[in-house]
Amino acid sequence: MRILLMAAGSYGDIAPYTGLGARLQEAGHEVALAAPETFGELVSGSGLEFRPLAVDPRGRPAGVKEGRSVLLARAAAFIDRLGDGLADAAAPGADLLLLATTTAPLGWHLAEAMDVPSLGVYLQPTLPTGEFPPVVGTPRSLGRWGNRVAGALGQRVVDRLHAGAARRLRARLGLPVCSQPARRRSLERLNWPVLHGFSPTLVPRPTDWREGLQVVGNWWPYVAADYRLPTEVEDFLRAGPPPVFIGFGSMAAGQGERLGALAVDALRRAGVRGVLQSGWAGIAADGADGGDVLTVGEIPHAQLFPHMAAVVHHGGAGTAAAVLRAGVPSVPVPVTADQPFWAGRLTRLGAATDPIPYAELTAVGLADAIRQAVAGGALRGRAEAASRAMAEEDGAARVVEAVAGLEDVCQGSRGECELRWEG
């Protein structure tokens, strides 16, 4: 089967699909991954066909100290460019579309025009539930009724943001007029299946979700079987006690100098060694002496995190899962979007300190949290217990099984399809 995975966003929105795509290829499928142009090397390096999207992930809402109106405006601009990019990426054809959270609202229309089935492969629990509030918004529960209402309102906002791009995409594809809410409702009536790539250890499947929504476990970024840590990293790890990792991934662009100085100060106050990941912020240990702080670029979390005493991170879905998988305590510093949700989940699980909102981050506060994480045997014990539970999960295998067992049942002239899988 020719499978087209479609994902858009920053590194954490793309990397998990390289591992998922590789597993699908191992199962005998031909797999292409459509992603922003900047991730061509990442995708090709995993052995997948790369179909570039002419969008810049740095133009996505990922900033610091931006109001809701600014974030929504940036999201709308990103979505407007995304529609044509997805259509171009789909032009070579496919037998099945696998759609990420960021691409599904437009991918639904592509699947209809191509007359092929589609399957959601989401990294976040975005569907309304009474068990927790929307993942983007307040992390505080609003009660079961309030959480569901807030979730439904959130979907209406998403539909409005995609309305213009969806209308233009349908016109380009020669499809009849159909509003974004109507397209969503038609799929929900068919129980359009969505497999969620996060661990039920961290977020169990909500009991009030409709049929077709499953939590299957993480799919992890592709890492070559012969990958080894860089020599300088291995030497640093051998030179002393386990260090503390500090990184903010795709967050805080332009804040590198300030964050680097703050991180080194916090590490020194806490009396621990550290590994700083530069990320989009450009964090570096400038001026650090004594060889107790190392700056690194992009290194697979699966290979690095198990060597850490604790991990300070922004609370992205992938990073939060990778720390838990390593059995290491977290110090979450959420910046924006869904990060407060994942940070709160780690803390609720007992595997992390209380989150430090990025806007309130200081060297003194970070040092206190690092000391708590490093010395906290209970935090490490719960992280290790979660790691053992996650080791029993195989989210990629669940997707492979779903693809192998699905049956395409198309209904009506507009190509509305229901996906079913055996078992």
Architecture overview:
The protein has 423 residues and is an alpha/beta fold. It folds into two domains: 2-218 and 393-421, Rossmann fold; 231-390, Glycogen Phosphorylase B (Rossmann fold, 3-Layer(aba) Sandwich), CATH 3.40.50.2000. It has 14 helices and 14 strands. The strands form three sheets. It has a seven-stranded parallel sheet, with helices on both faces. A five-stranded parallel sheet has the order 10-9-8-11-12, with helices on both faces. The two termini are 20 Å apart.
- Uncertain parts: 60-65, 407-423
Distance between the termini: 20 Å
Rg: 21 Å
The fraction of residues in strands falls at 5-15%
Number of helices: 14
Order of helices and strands: EHEHEHEHEHHEEHEHEEHEHEHHHHEE
Please give the order of strands in the largest beta sheet. 3-2-1-4-5-6-7
| Fourth CATH level, the homologous superfamily of the largest domain | Glycogen Phosphorylase B
Which architecture of the largest domain would the CATH scheme give at its second level? 3-Layer(aba) Sandwich
Overall tally of domains: 2
CATH topology of the largest domain: Rossmann fold
Number of DSSP strands? 14
CATH class of the largest domain: Alpha Beta
Q: Helicity range of the residues?
A: 40-55%
Q: By helix and strand content, what is the structural category?
A: alpha/beta
Major β-sheet annotation: 7 strands, parallel
Average pLDDT figure = 90
Please give a handful of descriptors for the protein shown:
alpha/beta; Rossmann fold; about 425 residues; 2 domains; globular; five-stranded parallel β-sheet; disordered C terminus
